[in-house]
Amino acid sequence: MGYNHATLATGLGILALPAVQLPSITSQVAWVLCCTGMGLFPDWDKDGSHVSRMWGWPSRMIARAINALSGGHRWGTHDVVLCPLVCAALLTLAARHPLSQIAAIAVCIGLAVRACIAKRLWRVGEVMTAAISWGGAWLLVRDGHGAVVDWLPAAAAVGIVAHALGDVLTEEGVPVPVVWLWRKQRVHLELFVTNSAVERRVVAPVLSVLVVLAAYQVSGIRSWDGLWDALAHLGRSLPVA
Asked: Angle CA(198)–CA(176)–CA(210) in degrees, nearest 5?
């Protein structure tokens, strides 16, 4: 469900933009990308998932550790209450030291890159993804832009909730928040089977259309000229090395 998780997280991230009120188009794009990437994060509890293949064997080892700590696939990392709180706490702690800032930013960049791959927007290998993730994080911290921004925990929560909303529709579902710690219970609607024809041929196109409609509604762009102007403004606002 990599494509659908990333797409749903993109849509929710766009819809949340008016609430977070970010000052520039650069920060707005960064917000949406972070939400999109965090839409894949909960599946870091499974070796072989999109995110576990992010950096090759290192991210696979992390997936095995997360799997053990979270109680297995679709348990702790899919808890819509505990997982966002834990992520928020870790991101807050990460802001205290440059090395932990690099690690946190590298994860966010890697997730965003992996989400773009899941959406088939581009294709890069594990080594290149690692280089982009850690190189980009190092550059941001070196240039004084590495502090974990205030909205990062909120973006993580949006992505995690989007992921859970997608999984609750499937046959396996997601854990009952908090309760699963002592009583293994799940909630599921069983509307379709993961990676089934329904998901690929119906759910995926519908989500894609909804993202376009969300972008149309929130951005205020109503013409091709408006789109090009927004892209040009984004290009001018990007930091130049």
From this structure: 35
Tokens linked to 222: 């109503």
Cα–Cα distance, 217 to 221 (Å, whole number): 8
How high does pLDDT run on average in the chain?
A: 89
Place of tokens 């376009």: 212
Q: What is the pLDDT of residues 40-57, one digit of tens each?
A: 999 999 998 989 999 999
Please spell the DSSP secondary structure of the chain, one letter per residue: -HHHHHHHHHHHHHHHHHHH--SSHHHHHHHHHHHHHHTTGGGGGSTTSTGGGSSSHHHHHHHHHHHHHHTSTTSGGG-TTHHHHHHHHHHHHHTTSHHHHHHHHHHHHHHHHHHHHHTTS----HHHHHHHHHHHHHHHHHTT--SPPTTHHHHHHHHHHHHHHHHTTBSS-EEPTTGGGTS--EE---SB-TT-HHIIIIIHHHHHHHHHHHHHHHH---SHHHHHHHHHHHHHHS---
Cα–Cα distances in Å, from 177 out to 18, 138, 148, 158, 174? 28, 36, 27, 16, 9
Q: What is the per-residue pLDDT for 234?
A: 64
Backbone dihedral region of 34: left (phi > 0), alpha (psi from -120 to 50 degrees) or beta? Answer: alpha
